[in-house]
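Q: Structure tokens for this one, please.
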Amino acid sequence: MPAVVMGTVTGVRRTSPSFLTVTLAGCSTLETGGFDQRIKILLAQPGQDEPVLPPAEDWYGVYREMADDVRPVMRTFTIRAQRGEEIDIEFALHGDAGPAAAWALSAAPGSRLGIIGPEIGDNPKAYQYMPRRPDWQLLVGDDTAVPALASIISALPADAVARVFVQVPHAEDVREFETAAQVKVEWCVGGGLADAVRSAELPDGTPYAWVAGETSIVRDIRRHLTGTLGWDSKPHYFGGYWKAGQSEG
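A: Here is the predicted structure, written as tokens:
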């Protein structure tokens, strides 16, 4: 059974033009599995001081039955870090005016946010990153995948080898990833993520790919890896996080 908690903002930090990290307390019953750990965030409807949360038991069934003007807006995010009862959620502002970005930009200490995620002892955790003894890893994402990529890269062991391709909107969004692994990062500022992967000279050996971001870009990269390069698609993760031309709703 998942944990359903009301998080309270204790800090907001703008790290670059496209990224903002919000720290929330009240999350002691949550337990991240690390990597690209997914959670649901619940945002209040207009006129509400805080979102109305469903119970942990049959939370989705209750959520679906809520009235339209009561049901909180729900989005999927990554736990970036956890320190006891506090968690960090990093928001990719992503150039849009969707409800999650709007909430993050207006968040201040005391702001409230609902969270649905893995409770302590819940196993398996809700993450997609699951390499199976590869010789090397291909990690690819646009700005919406940067929080997950940063978490994955920070958890890599020292003997891991990874090629990383990241697309961000602005040069000021480029960052250093903390890791003990052997990681080579190529940044694509403003676009060109799929082209960078297609033109790259990739290592020999058994690979593992984790690719996430805009749906059509992820599809192009998947076609290149499985079609042009002949990789088996089954061991890898290809996640369409959003679609160009569609608002966040």
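A few notes: The domain at 136-242 is CATH 3.40.50.80 (Rossmann fold). Residues 168 and 209 are 19 Å apart (CA to CA).
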